[in-house]
Amino acid sequence: MTQEEYIQIYLAQQRKLQAHSLVNNSFSDHENELLDMASALANGEIIDLSNYDVDNIDQITDDILTMLKKVKNEKQLKQLLKLLEALQSVQSSDDEYSGTNDTKSQIKPVLKPADDKIDENPVIQKAKDYGAWAKQQYQQFGKDLKAKRKTKLIDTSKYDNLSRDELVALYHPSKFYSLSTKDRNALFQATVNDYLISNGAQPCAVSFMDMPITDKSIHYGLYRPQYGDLFINSRLFENIDELATNGNINFPYHILSTLIHEATHALQFQSIISQPLSKKDQLILNSMKHNQSSLSYQEYLAEADELDARNSALEYIRNSAISAQRGRENLKAYYNTQKNRELKTSKAHVQSDVQALFPDLFDSTFLTPDIAKMQRMNSSAKEMQTIVQGKYISETLQRRKRF
What pLDDT was estimated at residue 399? Predict the structure, then answer.
């Protein structure tokens, strides 16, 4: 990542902290003049500073440093950094000149496009420190993921010699519901290990925690980058005996899909954030840097990092259905059910060129279904939701009655 990108990360955090303040981020006429100067310099023009007192360039640089906290446009941010470097070259020339003030006034200073060399002058360093701070935090974050994982990986020795197809076969309802809690948890960890390692990333721990379930929504899982752990909602398994008794075929595959979805977020933090190699990676990185807390649910669904996680889960299921020796029809039915749900779910507009990057979410190609299996998968999805939400719906209704 470049210096400008590091500084952008830092400034994005500053803007996030100021988001709900009454700070006026509009530019004054003087600041707009400096923005125009920075733009002209970036375009290779020679800038005439004859209207400026060279002795006051310190004040101009301080003005630019203040502006850095207000700029939201990446292009303008980079241009202002270049202008700071160019201003330093004028300062250096002025400091080296020992003539009288009268002689100095005859000099017509100009700003020329700066090269990429970073000058360690304190004025420039003051601006670069934003980036240095961000880079330091960024690098330490990467170290924390590898060296300070708070949760020990579940022992997966029982499954370490299984292929991906063999692991996926254990999510077939006839196998899944017969597993002990210990073996089931080890299967989850082995699945995530296989997925991350095959994508060149380090395994992350699969853990469990209570997450919200209401009459309106179910929270299945999440990835917490500050810990480097993937979490599954422990409440999902409170009624697993009822799901097993009913032979629910949706639940095991929905857990599999959730594991891949959240593991994809782990992959984003381990790989894409450090080395975005493509347009798709850059879109995902921009989403990860973007504060999503104020988004509507429809906007949230359209963020590139979420599109990537859902697309990757569907792609995993599709590939598994194609190669599976056992449970192929179940996998095909689950894929078609989830894909159909994606196509019908309301989300913010996604441009066609972005849609093309996530084909399992947006194209209309389905796997050839077994109609009876599709019908059963659809009914199982509804049944799963009813069973999982069951007592929480009752609790929610009871709370509402109190008010």
Answer: 55
In this prediction, residue 269 carries a pLDDT of 82
Residues 6+ away with beta carbon under 8 Å from 237: 181
Say whether both 261 and 358 belong to one domain. Answer: yes
Helix (H) or strand (E) holding 148: none
Q: Do 73 and 183 belong to one domain? A: no
Residue 245 lies in a domain: yes
Q: How many distinct structural domains can be found in the chain?
A: 2
Residues 124, 72 within the same domain: yes
* Residue range of the domain that includes 334: 164-395
By DSSP bridging, strand 206-209 and strand 229-233 are parallel
Instruction: State residue 141's pLDDT score.
Output: 46
Question: DSSP 3-state assignment of 293?
Answer: coil
pLDDT score, position 21: 39
Task: Determine the 3-state secondary structure of 119 from DSSP.
Answer: coil
Residue at 218 is within a domain: yes
Contact 244, 268 (CB under 8 A): no
Global pTM exceeds 0.70: no
Question: What DSSP assignment string belongs to 331-385?
Answer: HHHHHHHHHHHHHHS------HHHHTT-HHHHS---PPP-HHHHHHHHHHHHHHH
Q: Are residues 337 and 219 in the same domain?
A: yes
Using DSSP, state whether 45 is helix, strand or coil.
Answer: coil
Residue 154 belongs to some domain of the structure: no
Question: Do 326 and 243 belong to one domain?
Answer: yes
Give the residue ranges of the chain where pLDDT is below 50. Answer: 1-4, 6, 14-24, 94-138, 141-142, 144-149, 403
327: left (phi over 0), alpha (psi -120 to 50) or beta: left
Q: Is 158 part of a structural domain of the chain?
A: no
